[in-house]
Amino acid sequence: MSPGRSHLVEILLPKETGKGQPIGQHWLDCFLKELSDRFGGATSFLRAPGQGLWQSGGGTEKDSIAVVEVMVEEIDSSYWQTLRERLQRELSQEEIIIRAQEIRRL
């Protein structure tokens, strides 16, 4: 990746499926390999999961998440939308957050 501007894409993954099953290490390893093969690398933060709380239907829901990061030069919105939809199906989730921010490599 050339110096200068690029994008950091963050994928917020639940540690459990929407059905309450833990997401296995094999699935995560395969997902990281898929991203690494496509983009040349990926970083995961799995061992110290983030905790999320949000309001839903008059109650508070809680989730434990892992973050996967990928650096890309250009954002292919179609690819990321397709990936998000696939992850939502595979992990039985209403919504998977994939976000990007422009960064400047120093």
Provide a descriptive summary of the structure in words.
The protein is an alpha+beta fold. The protein has one domain (12-105). Helix content is 27%, strand content 45%. The chain has helices at 25-39, 77-90; strands at residues 4-14, 43-56, 59-72, 97-105. A four-stranded antiparallel β-sheet has the order 2-3-1-4, covered by helices on one side. The chain is globular and about 45 Å long.
- Based on helices, strands and strand pairing, what is the structural class? alpha+beta
Strand order of the largest sheet: 2-3-1-4
As residue ranges, the low-confidence spans are: none
Number of domains: 1
SSE sequence, one letter per element: EHEEHE
Q: What proportion strand? A: over 45%
| Rough outline | globular
Mean pLDDT: 88
Helix content: 25-40%
DSSP summary: helix tally: 2
Biggest sheet record: 4 strands, antiparallel
Number of strands: 4
Separation of the first and last Cα atoms: 12 Å
Radius of gyration computed on alpha carbons: 15 Å
Essential attributes:
106 residues, alpha+beta, 4-stranded antiparallel sheet, 2 helices, 27% helix, globular
Quick recap:
With 106 residues, this protein is α+β, with helices and mostly antiparallel strands.
Layout of helices and strands:
Blueprint: E1 4-14, H1 25-39, E2 43-56, E3 59-72, H2 77-90, E4 97-105
